[in-house]
Q: What sequence folds into this?
């Protein structure tokens, strides 16, 4: 009965070493949020005109940090989707990356506004730890005819995916 | 297979499955507050109506204007109406106003202005709207002559 154990221990050590990179916990974190109030000051030209249809956040409204990579060649991808609490189907929300952040690796993609749906879609990709990746938001669809008085909430959710 | 081997294999399985756990999520919250918007404005500035002609044997001709002033509004709330009232009592003449060529509501017809608010446009939709302001001033010979300035106020309010 001791032989299988003696055989398994070196094998398991090898497996453990082989899987070590996976144990580096690839992680994504965010800072910032966007709270927007739309009122009469957002009418195109006062009474008799509609709301300005598009609202855009500051270019540094949100920030993303990616940590836990095994090094500057450890590739990853960030997917984005929205999780609605209260949202109007006439709204379209967009996100884009406005900064590269800092880090030893690389980053690419996501620099043009892309509509965020309730299904994950690739946002940007890169390698290595990156911090301070700025993002900007834009919402289209404001109109007094279609958007009732209310408070609308959604979460722009990013998922980091380890890639080969 | 003894228990120790099973435990070690379980650990190995955890190690392999570690790559499947190497993904995490974070989010930015976006909150949009759409406030109540109920804006109304008059375009065209002040209007002067002069009653100055008459046919012999008849009362003076009414003075009218339907092109100088317009009313415009925007609302994102349902069940609204627009009322009209004079700031002071109208005397020495009769002043009437009509909402003409209304979009985004229903005209209340020709109204004789007073200090009491009257329904000028009803059924205001949650949208932009507007109308021409058609004024008519009339007086009888017995009213004599006078010159008075009135402030006419249009208010968008709840249709109760």
A:
């Amino acid at each position: 009965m001791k032989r299988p154990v003696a055989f398994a221990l070196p094998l398991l050590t090898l497996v453990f070493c082989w899987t070590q990179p996976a144990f580096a916990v690839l992680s994504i974190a965010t800072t910032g949020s966007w709270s927007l109030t739309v009122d009469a000051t957002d009418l195109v030209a006062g009474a008799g005109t509609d709301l300005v249809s598009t609202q855009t956040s500051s270019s540094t409204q949100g920030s993303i940090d990616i940590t836990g990579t095994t090094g500057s060649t450890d590739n990853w991808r960030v997917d984005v989707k929205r999780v609605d609490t209260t949202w109007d189907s006439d709204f379209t929300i967009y996100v884009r990356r406005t900064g590269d952040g800092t880090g030893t690796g690389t980053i690419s993609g996501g620099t043009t506004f892309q509509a965020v749906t309730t299904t994950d879609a690739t946002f940007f990709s890169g390698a290595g730890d990156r911090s301070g990746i700025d993002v900007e938001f834009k919402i289209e669809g404001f109109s007094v005819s279609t958007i009732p008085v209310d408070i609308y909430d959604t979460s722009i959710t990013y998922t980091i995916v380890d890639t080969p | 297979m003894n228990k120790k081997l099973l435990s070690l294999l379980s650990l190995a399985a955890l190690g392999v499955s570690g790559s499947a756990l190497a993904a995490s999520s974070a989010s930015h919250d976006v909150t949009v507050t759409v406030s109540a918007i109920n804006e109304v404005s008059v375009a065209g500035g002040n209007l002067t109506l002069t009653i100055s002609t008459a046919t012999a044997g008849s009362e003076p001709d009414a003075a009218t204007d339907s092109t100088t002033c317009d009313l415009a509004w925007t609302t994102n709330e349902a069940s609204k109406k627009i009322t009209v009232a004079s700031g002071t009592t109208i005397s020495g003449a009769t002043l009437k106003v009509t909402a003409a060529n209304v979009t985004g509501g229903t005209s209340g017809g020709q109204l004789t202005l007073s200090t009491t608010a009257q329904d000028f446009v009803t059924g205001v939709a949650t949208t932009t709207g507007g109308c021409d302001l058609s004024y008519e001033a009339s007086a009888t010979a017995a009213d004599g002559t006078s010159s008075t300035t009135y402030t006419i106020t249009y208010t968008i309010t709840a249709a109760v």
